[in-house]
Design a protein that fits this description.
GO terms for molecular function: enzyme regulator activity; glutamate-cysteine ligase catalytic subunit binding; ligase activity. InterPro entries: Gclm (IPR032963), NAD(P)_OxRdtase_dom_sf (IPR036812), NADP_OxRdtase_dom (IPR023210). One of its GO terms (biological process) is glutathione biosynthetic process. Residues 31-169 form the NADP-dependent oxidoreductase domain. It is a single chain. By secondary structure, this protein is an alpha/beta fold. The protein has one domain. Helices cover 32% and strands 26% of the residues. The protein is built from six helices and seven strands; from the N terminus they run αβαβαβαβαβαββ. The chain has a seven-stranded mixed sheet with strand order 5-4-3-2-1-6-7, with helices on both faces. Helix 1 (2-16) packs parallel to helix 6 (180-190) and helix 4 (126-135) packs parallel to helix 5 (155-163). The longest helix has 16 residues, at 97-112. The radius of gyration is 19 Å and the shape is globular.
Length: 231
């Protein structure tokens, strides 16, 4: 992730030139156009577009921004599936249904507005997955389990998932895919005269475009959004 961000920022920075005063702009859109392959509408039915969303700053409204930007970048009207990684909780606080609810409501709204087809979760144990399933209007279609946390799927989780038709998937993502300090460091290295310590990452979305009939990844990439503190 860090290498992708650094390469994009470095190439973008060299193209816009250093005469542009970035500090005066409200929004910086750092995109290398040739690196993103838009989906041909004629091929859309043959492809599955899936994404995993990592919320860095705990703000549920970021979900809509992330999905809208992903759809725009790929040239599609909707994403086939979105899995959300549990947003960060404060030290000493356990992840709870109450904490997840505003994020899940945002995902449900996007399903109802036909921006997403299916929504899923990551790293929920059987108790929390069951609580979410019973409460949610739009049920989770999948739950990712970290390979580092278990060699064998927990039997109670497996039984519940089978009963409720929830697909159990595995992943090996680190608990924190991109921390604030790492993002600021790569920003400082990539763009001259930027006050990196003012920038805070909000979310990171990893997408993949898969050819359904062959199970081949056609393209994949990352989209990240950060904000600059005024202070």
């Amino acid at each position: 992730v860090r290498d992708c961000i650094q390469k994009t920022l470095t190439e973008w920075s060299s193209k816009i030139g250093q005469d542009q005063n970035q500090e005066t702009l409200e929004v910086l859109e750092c995109t290398v156009a040739q690196a993103i392959e838009k989906i041909n509408p004629e091929e859309r039915d043959e492809l599955k577009v899936s994404a995993k969303l990592f919320i860095v700053g705990s703000n549920s409204s970021s979900i809509r921004d992330a999905v809208d930007l992903a759809c725009s970048a790929l040239g599609v009207a909707q994403l086939d599936s979105v899995i959300i990684a549990p947003p960060p909780v404060e030290d000493g606080t356990n992840l709870s249904l109450e904490y997840l609810q505003p994020y899940w409501k945002e995902l449900e709204n996007l399903v109802q507005n036909k921006k997403i087809v299916a929504i899923g979760t990551s790293d929920l144990d059987k108790m929390l997955l069951e609580q979410l399933y019973l409460w949610a209007q739009v049920k989770p279609s999948s739950n990712q389990v970290n390979l580092a946390s278990c060699c064998v799927m927990p039997p109670d989780l497996t039984a519940f998932a089978k009963e409720c038709d929830i697909q159990l998937l595995t992943h090996n993502d680190p608990k924190e895919l991109l921390c604030e300090a790492s993002f600021q460091e790569v920003l400082q290295e990539s763009i001259q005269n930027v006050k990196a310590n003012k920038w805070i990452p909000l979310w990171l979305l990893r997408y993949s475009v898969i050819v359904k009939s062959r199970g081949i990844i056609k393209s994949k990439g990352y989209i990240i959004q950060a904000k600059r503190n005024a202070s």
